[in-house]
What does this fold into?
Amino acid sequence: MIESYSSILKIRRNVFEEVAKLAYEGDYSRIEEIPYEMLKGQAKYRESIFLERAIVAERIRLAIGLPVRSADEHAPISKGIEDAIITKRFYEPPLVNVIDFACNACPTDSYHVTDACEGCLANPCANVCPKDAIRISNGISKINQELCIKCGRC
Ligand code: SF4
Ligand code: SF4
It folds into this structure.
């Protein structure tokens, strides 16, 4: 987890650093090259280096103040940049953007038995379950996700 946080922090800082350089130099023509300069060789964080670069490209756009795009939109990173290179730019909603194709859609509302389960005899986790979703199997509790209503009692 700590490594993952460090990785995302590093990428975020690199993106802001590159955007600051572009603004300082006043030359946005090399913007398309930044994902290739930042990410070389093998993929480190995702299944493909191409996906990693596409996500960084969207991060660059967001850092500049441009809207996030979907994976279906074929356009250079710099599309619409003339609207962003202005002296004053006021906040435009949404404040928080999600890069859809960067999201792994991890389940956020499911309950799982951890490695700490000892399959205790009292088995209170199963006793409190209103849906009879917990069974002991191979010495540990297992939750039937089809039955579980995510009440959190266990
Ligand atoms: S998860 Fe259930 S069976 Fe496992 S130790 Fe906790 S209460 Fe006991
Ligand atoms: S979250 Fe609720 S329904 Fe799901 S296994 Fe635990 S007690 Fe049962």
